[in-house]
From TrEMBL:
A Pfam family annotated for this UniProt entry: Lipase_2
Protein name (Swiss-Prot/TrEMBL): Alpha/beta fold hydrolase
Organism lineage string: Bacteria, Bacillati, Actinomycetota, Actinomycetes, Pseudonocardiales
Keyword vocabulary terms for this entry: Hydrolase, Signal
Extent of the signal sequence: 1-28
InterPro entries, per the entry: AB_hydrolase_fold (IPR029058), Lipase_EstA/Esterase_EstB (IPR002918)
Amino acid sequence: MARGTKRWLAAIGLAAALVTSAAVPAQAASGGNNDFACRPSAAHPNPVVLLHGTFATYYEDLNFLQADLAARGYCTFSLTYGAYPQFPLVGGLKPVAESSLEIKAFVEKVRAATGAAKVDVVGHSEGGLQAIYLAKMQGIQSEIGKVVGIAPPTHGADASGLLTLAYTLLGKSTWDTIVKTIGLPIFADELDGGAAIVALNTGPVAQPGIAYTIITSRYDELVTPTETSFIREPGVANQYVQDFCPNDPVGHIGEAYDLNVWHLVRNALDPANATPIKLCAVGSPG
């Protein structure tokens, strides 16, 4: 399957999502994606930083979710992290610890620009892992209010899942070129026993003062077993999409575009105004 095709298929509910978003009045003084003039509102005081997954970019993964949140009055920001100069259009390739430094600097830039005391961080796949890693390992716990991880490989992904993801998003020829040119340190880093996974899971994962929500699908085919996403520690909300929408067959890539997942993300970011999912969407099973 050509690169991007599966993401396009996963986004078949986009039209409905944008119609819904357009009907929601913006509450921030200035809004839009990566608008550093945006000033958080009283309703949504924390800017939201969104982090893409492996082999993705800020404009091809959580970009539609970012637009949805911005339309609802959030100040939203994202970056392509972990890209090498040889492949600037593919992110999430560098070791987790190295990319985490980029993300930390970006969070501090967002805070300085918006004047916010804290940010909330939402990540998909490796982005979810990066959000959790950032909160524990970079010494900025006091600057993070909420962490929302969508299908993160918290305890490590299996190699076949990562290889499947690489072939699906990049195509085998691009994959082979990347491996020959730079190797692929992230490939080992996200595995069970990888350096980032070991560091993250040495001692408690969840940090005091941060609210964590982990969302995944029972049908996620890449981060398996699906339980590996969850943080089984006090105060962490671990959620399967199917706990709310039993018939949603959404898979790993589709979770970034799934309207039910978006609803759960919004609830996690604004728990005081959380609402039930009244009409379940059907996400992409891939």
